[in-house]
Design brief:
Glycosyltransferase, 4% strand, binds 2-acetamido-2-deoxy-beta-D-glucopyranose, 6-hairpin_glycosidase_sf, two-stranded antiparallel ribbon, hydrolase, globular, 48% helix, mainly alpha, three-stranded antiparallel sheet, 19 helices, glycosidase
């Protein structure tokens, strides 16, 4: 058996080495630095009343009347990227992935665990308001994206319409509602020991929101098309979120109703579909890996299906295997899209490390046809991606702002590029702000920890504020990176 096995691993190692997969560029201290910064970034995205321990001090309070004209309190939450919109769909996904990062790798976060929990709570406090403000509805957005995008304005100055948008029985949104349920359920695990009553509230609300998502089926892209598309249109539909939401509530509660739900609806909701991008839109690959844990830990035999699909997903990323279909840049970066590509790199790295952990703690491997892929292989691939983001790349630049010696200075981000309200308290209007978009000098405020969209398929990056495809940060780029760098920050041995 050893002789049959060895040549395949040798070939794999040669392939991985030729893509540069064997470098060890950063120390655990560097990853710990990146971890701290990756969480700090979320403070720069905060909407609402900033607390006294706010560390990104160039920001001020903003959007304090969100919901007020409609007699609901929708203050708080996160701006999703470089604009001043509160989009509930990516905000919920961000919160789910921050929570998953803490669930899997919180024990490696050391003194950053409290900051990670605070970042999650900033999301869940808002999502709880959005889910409970008006019975039978879920608020899923505040702000008009078309009008917001026509301005270059600090959040503190914002004077564009702050209309709240909701889904309801008549205008359903099973995608955004089930993702919100996933976020609340995942966060309930995070707070189980540190704040049991908050945790119980999160789980209880998750179950109610999931019931609403499942009972009144439809996509929010239909009911709210003009304000959610093309921004965060639910291209993959809502089946993936229903299975993902049920899986998270099952993980959080162990309640048998959700196991029954997964068993009876899994097939219809995409258990057998392979999909190779994991993002705010498409949850299929993440659900497979999440559910594979119950099989690998020998709790639920019939979840073997999810382990098999997790293997297929993993194999799709490994050159030389029979389902390989990923694209890498010449410098070795996973490449999926010309816009905000690094969101796929961080989410994939997180899944690789999570699956590696599930496999290795159960003495298992992934099988890709005749090749066997070990946890160490997955960790090597994830390390290459993380190191690339942190500066081991042909352009010799870190794609995390404030990390390393060279990083993007002209990020597409209103708050970062306009003067701080503390230095320049006078109102800067919607159109006057554009002079700061178009100026050549670096952004005055450093949004420490922000990971930008990243380079193109030839490893080329232009640090240009108008090139939002490459220079805009987003909360869902950072969220899974928090878990990935936590993993590497605690590594004591290198393979
Ligand atoms: C399990 O979940 C179902 C569906 O949400 C709920 O009706 C039931 O009360 C839950 N059971 C327990 C023990 O919490
Ligand atoms: C790389 O980007 C720079 C800056 O945008 C551009 O001038 C150059 O032509 C690009 N190179 C390639 C090979 O695309």
């Amino acid at each position: 058996m050893a002789t049959a096995f060895y040549p395949q691993i040798l070939i794999l190692c040669l392939i991985l080495t030729s893509l540069g997969f064997s470098s060890m560029a950063f120390t655990p201290q560097d990853y710990a630095d990146a971890l701290e910064k990756s969480i700090l970034f979320f403070e720069g995205q905060r909407s609402g009343n900033l607390p006294s321990n706010q560390r990104i001090t160039w920001r001020g309070n903003s959007a304090l009347s969100d919901g007020t004209p409609y007699h609901v309190d929708l203050v708080g939450g996160y701006y999703d990227a470089g604009d001043n919109m509160k989009f509930g769909f990516p905000m919920a996904f961000t919160t789910t992935l921050l929570s998953w990062s803490v669930i899997e790798f919180g024990s490696s976060m050391g003194n950053q665990l409290d900051n990670a929990r605070a970042a999650i709570k900033w999301g869940t406090d808002y999502l709880l308001k959005a889910a409970t403000a008006t019975p039978g509805t879920l608020y899923v957005q505040v702000g008009d994206p078309n009008q917001d995008h026509r301005c270059w304005e600090r959040p503190e100055d914002m004077d564009t319409p702050r209309n709240p948008y909701m889904v309801s029985k008549q205008n359903p949104g099973s995608d955004v509602a089930a993702e919100t349920a996933a976020a609340l359920a995942a966060a309930s695990i995070v707070f189980k020991d540190s704040d049991p009553s908050y945790s119980a509230k999160l789980l209880h609300t998750a179950m109610k929101v999931f019931d609403f998502a499942d009972r009144y089926r439809g996509s929010y892209s239909d009911s709210l098309n003009s304000v959610v598309c093309p921004f965060y249109c639910s291209y993959s539909g809502y089946h993936d979120e229903l299975l993902w939401g049920a899986s998270w509530i099952h993980r959080a509660s162990g309640n048998a109703s959700y196991l029954t739900y997964i068993q009876s609806n899994g097939q219809t909701l995409g258990a057998d579909e392979d999909d190779y991008s994991f993002s705010w839109d498409d949850k299929r690959a993440g659900t497979k890996i999440l559910l594979s844990k119950d099989f690998l830990e020998k709790r639920i035999e019939e979840f073997q299906l999810y382990k098999a699909h997790s293997d297929r997903y993993i194999c799709s990323l490994i050159p030389g295997t029979y389902t390989f279909q990923a694209q890498y840049t010449p410098g070795g970066l996973l490449y999926k899209a010309s816009e905000s590509n690094l969101q796929y790199v961080t989410s994939t790295s997180f899944l690789l490390l999570t699956y590696a952990t599930y496999l290795s703690s159960n003495g298992e491997v992934a099988s890709c046809g005749s090749s066997t892929i070990t946890a160490e292989n997955l960790i090597s691939l994830a390390r290459k991606q993380v190191d690339y983001i942190l500066g081991e790349n042909p352009a010799e630049i870190s794609y995390m702002v404030g990390f390393g010696e060279r990083y993007p200075l002209h990020i597409h981000h209103r708050g970062s590029s306009l003067p701080s309200v503390h230095n320049h308290p006078d109102h800067i209007t919607c159109s006057n702000g554009f002079q700061y978009l178009n100026v050549r000098s670096p952004n005055p405020n450093i949004l420490v920890g922000a990971i930008v969209g990243g380079p193109d398929n030839t490893d080329n990056f232009s640090d240009d504020r108008n090139n939002y495809q490459q220079s805009e940060p987003a909360t869902y780029i950072n969220a899974p990176f928090v878990g990935a760098v936590a993993f590497f920050s605690s590594e004591t041995t290198t393979k």
